[in-house]
Amino acid sequence: MQVSPIPLATGIECPFNSRVSRCDAFGVKSEARYWPVMRPLCLAAIALALINAGGAPAAEMSAGVARIKITPPMPFQLSGYSNRTNLATEVRTDLWAKAIALQDGDGRRAVIVTTDLIGLPREISENVAGRAIERHGLARSQIILNSAHVHSGPMVWPNLPNMFDLTPGQIAPLEQYARSLSDNLTGLIEAAIANLAPAKLAIAHDSADFAINRREPTAKGFKLGVNPSGPTDHDVPVLIVHTPDGRLRAVLFAYACHNTTLTGTWNIIDGDYAGAAQRKVELSHPGCTALFMMLCGGDQNPNPRNTIELAEQHGQTLAAAVERALASDSKPVRPPIRSAHHLIRLPFATHSRETFVQELQDKNVARQRRARMMLAAYDRGQPVIDVAYPVQAIRFGDDLCLVGLGGEVVVDYALRAKREFPGENLVVAGYCNNVMCYIPTVRILREGGYEPCDSMIFYGQPGPFAESIEETIFQTIRQVMREVGASAQD
User: Fold this and answer.
1) What is the pLDDT of residues 208-225, one digit of tens each?
2) pTM for the predicted model, two decimal places
């Protein structure tokens, strides 16, 4: 993939008070303005030369972290709730993108990017990954971009393209933000890699119980509500990064729950519970970067919800779980780093042009918009029959394995994967690399409701999926797990 060099985004922050500001792609000359980003690279090269000269062993693991503010300019269109047609004008808390770069002693890397956003579309994630591959020699399997699925954040074009009826003039600032976001995430990865330094990694787990299954059964079918008997996953995995002298440098923690404590009645920018948890952890550990990763929370909501105080409360609950994990007996995370990535096709249920001719008569204006989109695709001779779907695995020795799945993945996928790989310290994340729509299981497809059917309208997908979806995804999960050295239970 050919990409043109771009400057790093202004304001990228690295630990140890270093700062990257307006640096061009590598290969720059030695002007003073480039020194902040080149300094760690030069020091790393000198250290490597000294190690090689003295015959000392290389560090077992290295880590680098960076962060950048991604709060959109005000006023701006928010995403997540179709009733919010007015632009937001208030920022309660800023939104962030953060990255952690990891490298083993043989130079194998993994880069994990987290964002306080509704979801990254493939157009952005693949642009960012392509640049990182070009500049740093990474493989696509070594880069994972996760979205916290924050509903009090900006529309990330073209994610959820059918949520609103937008004019070209209204789309223009969304496209500008998307371009800026691509540049910022590219610079963020560069800063994290430039910041690599020897580190000790460990993994621990705790739990938080505010997530609840939201697929409520009724006499008329399943609705969005509260289902205390529905499946959940309250696990809170915590990846801990210390400096060799024992200073806490970074914490990557995860949870399976929508960031929807603030409902559509709130038209403000806010990081919801995930943002509150990150702020609390960083406040408790000065100098530490806290990153939040969204797991398979497609059918999980915070409970209770709908106030700022509850968003802060859930964030405090999650931060407390992180603190307990930090105080527990953690397990070392060791090399090698192995990774695999596959892009597969997930077919939709059979439809025809007539399907959307009929839908065009629906009273629901969102359905009408979706029908026009699908009919236009038919008229081009390119009906939407499937969707590209990324499946990824990054494994650290025999100590930790991260599976990254695209889309809004329901919790059943994580629970089944853990059953199939009981010998693995397994973390299954949804909302990775491309959030193109909900990813239901066969059970949920047959039950119907918002996730498998109604939500597809806002994503501009013909939906629902064919019932082969679950087994197709698990065949690929097993494949990437084999490629990184994991094996399922016999």
Assistant:
1) 999 999 999 999 999 999
2) 0.88
